[in-house]
Design brief:
Blueprint lengths: L21 H26 L3 E7 L1 E2 L8 E11 L2 E4 L5 E6 L6 E2 L4 E5 L2 H43 L5 H40 L2 E3 L4 E6 L6 E2 L9 E2 L3 E4 L4 E8 L11 E6 L6 E14 L4 E8 L11 E7 L13 E3 L5 E3 L2 E8 L2 E6 L1 E2 L7 E5 L6 E4 L11 E3 L2
Parallel strand pairs: 1-25, 10-11
Antiparallel strand pairs: 1-24, 2-18, 3-13, 3-17, 4-12, 5-7, 5-10, 6-9, 7-8, 9-12, 13-16, 14-15, 14-17, 15-16, 18-23, 19-20, 20-21, 22-23
Helix pairs in contact: 2-3
Amino acid sequence: MLKELRIDGAHREDHGGGGPPKWVWGLGAALAVLALAGGAAWWYWAGNKPVPVQTATVRANGQGASADTVLQATGYVTARRMATVSAQMTGTLTEVLIDEGFKVKKGQVLARLDDTGLKAGLAAAEAQIRTAEANLGQVRAQLAQAQADERRQVELNASGMTTRQSREQAATAVKTVSAQLEASQRQVEAAQAQARQAKVNFDYATVRAPFDGVVTARAAQVGEIISPLSAGGGFTRTGVGTIVDMDSLEVNVDVNEAYIAQVKPDMPCEAVLDAYPDWKIPAHVVAVIPSADRGKATVKVRVALEKKDERLVPDMGVRVSFLAAKPRTEAKPVPGVLLPPEALVQRDGGDAVFVAQDDRAEQRAVKLGADVGKFKLVTSGLKAGETVVLSPPTELKQGSNIVKKD
């Protein structure tokens, strides 16, 4: 029995000096894999760690303030002549002949009200004139007859063929009819005045432009009631539309009261609209308004624009540079953008910059022109408004993650 329980030598495990157990090899392999994974992770995170940088936004050549700028202020374009046009009577609109953007001339018809009653009143007044004129003609005929009767009575009285009383009655008749003629003439004048009043009221039914301008708002529609006075309930309009005289546009700016002493009437200026930063508009100071805003500590200044076109509209934001002297006529600036020199680097044997694009650095080759003051003029490779990295560190490369410094 004991012999049957003995294990054959071919099936025994080898516990001799043949090497370490198999689990040791497995553990070593696992540690090696972890080491490689850790190294790869370190390499990835170290290579993509965000690089802290400082940035600046480039602007187009010619957008900066002039060298003679004394101070700058911001404001808005305003119109000196602007009117909300309404009728001089209450009525229902039957026609509206304007819309936003329409150019109108002084006296042009903008809208019409229901004039049925006014037309009837005007016709009645004109008929009254004709009636009064007919009565006047009748009295004139009566006066002519009374004067003829008086002459005959004078002749008969001279020959003794009539009484003195008859002659006096004839003279009285002439005076009576003359008075009636005077009254008839006054009636005609009164009827004519009433007709003129009816004509004026009739004209009130037609809304006309008070001056040349552009329609900036249409406030009423056909069928609505308009009135020069506001009515209750919110169903009555007080105007048909708004007209602006574009030739009266100017700029109102708020100047800090600490610097207002530097601003004088007729002082030369340059105005730059926020919507058109490349357009410098010559201007000058019209007046310094003698009133301050205690809340903002500013004084309002009126600035006249010396050049205007269709790009200029009311309520546009504008930046005004007050100049020490009127700028000389200069050539048009060379197209390009102004680059701070510290943003320029040498890469791949040429000039380059790093542009910040969605928290990543984009290396971009640029072409330079002549220097403009302290800036480098970039004629190609950059656009106005783009953000560039200042003093790019040596580790910065194409596609590097970046974070902007405060």
